[in-house]
Specification:
66% helix
């Protein structure tokens, strides 16, 4: 597990900030899943997009009611397997699904919040580190991660999202929408894949 000071700072955020942080990271992983679907014909990426939109909706629409147990069931059908596909992109696609699953489980059980925030943060950086390892053959560790541009870039984005959230004194719907819009319009994943 790669260490970063952000992991300690995240504990100080409120519930809505934790959920926004996780949704933002899943939003950044979504293009990996979508590109995988486009390249393999495995599935349409739209149902995953709709799940993610439902999460953003509970953050921005007052009294939004979403059946997250049902959403989890839908997600099960969207997860590819490594037995089925022999291309590297299956791993980041699975990572995106695992992160989404973690987020949905957390929305069903808020006691998982802190553990899940750290897990999704770690999942996103691990996706980047694994690609780096696959391409360079060099294992990414706590000691060498500062020398690896892509891993540093991932931590930088996580810090950027954290800082924006930390500055909010209370739940700021416009700020949440702004984060979502910026990430969605950017359309670039944590691996640099774009839609």
């Amino acid at each position: 597990m790669l260490q970063n000071p952000i992991q300690l700072r995240l504990e100080k955020l409120d519930t809505w900030q934790h959920i926004t942080f996780m949704a933002a990271l899943v939003e950044r992983m979504y293009p990996n899943y979508a590109v995988f679907c486009q390249q393999t014909g495995f599935a349409e990426p739209q149902p995953f997009r709709q799940l993610l939109d439902a999460v953003w909706e509970i953050l921005t629409v007052k009294n939004a009611k979403i059946d997250f147990e049902r959403q989890l069931e839908k997600l099960e059908e969207m997860i590819p397997t490594t037995e089925e596909f022999d291309i590297y992109l299956v791993y980041p696609a699975i990572d995106a699904c695992v992160a989404m699953s973690t987020l949905l489980h957390t929305l069903l059980d808020r006691d998982l919040m802190m553990e899940s925030v750290l897990k999704i943060s770690q999942q996103s950086v691990a996706t980047v580190a694994q690609l780096e390892e696959a391409q360079s053959g060099v294992e990414v560790t706590n000691d060498n991660q500062k020398e690896i541009e892509t891993v540093c870039a991932e931590w930088d984005v996580q810090w950027e999202i954290f800082r924006a959230l930390k500055e909010a004194q209370e739940r700021d719907i416009e700020m949440i929408r702004g984060i979502r819009t910026e990430l969605r319009e950017d359309g670039v994943s944590n691996l640099g894949l774009s839609l």
